[in-house]
Write a structure and sequence with these properties.
Blueprint: E1 9-13, H1 19-27, E2 32-33, H2 40-48, H3 57-66, H4 68-71, H5 77-84, H6 91-105, E3 110-114, H7 122-128, E4 133-138, H8 141-148, H9 160-182, E5 188-192, H10 193-198, H11 200-211, H12 234-237, H13 258-274, H14 287-297, H15 305-320
Parallel strand pairs: 1-3, 1-4, 2-3, 4-5
Amino acid sequence: MNNRQFSPIFIVGAPRSGTTLLAVMLDRHPQIAIPPETQFFTEFLPWARQQTDLETREKKIHAALAHPRLQDTGLEYDTVFSIFKVHDNTFKGLFRSLLEAYAKYKNAERPGEKSPKHLVHVPDILRYFPQAKIICLVRDGRDVVLSLLKVAWAEPGNPRRFGLFCSEWNAFARMAQTYLKTLPASRFYLVKYEDILRRPEKTLHEICEFIGEPYLPEMLRPGNNAGAIPEWEMGWKENAANELDLKRVQAWQRCSDPRVIWRMNSIMKKQLKRMGYPETENRSCPVHLQLWFIAQNIPYLPVLRPASLFLLKLARRLSLIKPERKH
C-alpha cells in the first residue's frame, strides 16, 4: 500500500467535545479500527526525538510499545515489525505501521486514530499522510469547560483551571476555523457534537460520505465500545458507549450560578458566536462584575499567554525552594 492509497481517519477537537463518542461510533463499523488515544504527536514523538538510541526499527517499536498511551493498543512487537519493515525507518513509518497493525489486529481494512489535541498537529498529520481524512469535533465551549471541571485529571480544585480551559477552547476554535478556510474540503471536515446528538443518523451519513465508507445502522447501536476506550478511562468516558443523551446539549444552561455563565461568556463570547452558538450576551450581569471579569481575563488574552505561563512556571519553581533555617 503506497502513501497515495493510505487514507487513515483522524478525529480531533478540544477535549470533552465528543471525540470519544464519534470514535466509538466509527469503531463499530466493521471496516474501521479506532484505537485508544495514542497521543503520538503530543506525547510520544516529543519524547522520542530527544532520545539518541532509537536508530533502528526494532528500538523504535520497543520504545513505542513501552509508552503508556500506546500500550493501550494491545499490539505485539512481531505484528508491528512485520509491517514496519516495508516502510521507511522513520517516525512517520512507525506511526503508519502502528495504525496498520491495529487495523490488522481488529480485522479491519481502514485504520483511524483519535487524540483530541492532535488538532494542533493537523498540518503534521497531513504531511505524514496526504490522503488522511480529518474530522474535527466542535462543542459549545461552555459545556466543554463545565465538563472539564468535573474530571479528576483536570485538577478540578485548581482555581486557575477555569480561565485556562476557556482560553484553550478559544484557541482550538480559532484553529478549527483556520483549517476550515485553508485546508481542502476533501481533507478536513467539521462536525458539531450537538448535531450528532440531535440528528445522529443524518450526521453519521454525512461523516461516512466524507470518509468514503457506507453508513451502517450498527454504528448507532449502544453498548459496544469495541476497544476505543481503555478500561482505565471508562470512569469519565463510559457515556460514549451508551444511549445518546440529548440532555448533554446546552447542559450549561442548567448551571445554578449565573456568575459562572457570565464569566464563560466574557472569555469565549467571540469564538462562541463565530461557531454559531447562541446566548452569549451578558446584559443581566452587573457592571462591577463585568469589570472584575475583564480584570480576571487579562492573563488569558492570547497576546499575554506566553508571559502568563512563564510567570506561572516561575512561581511554581519558587514555591519549591524552601528557605534555609537559621541556627
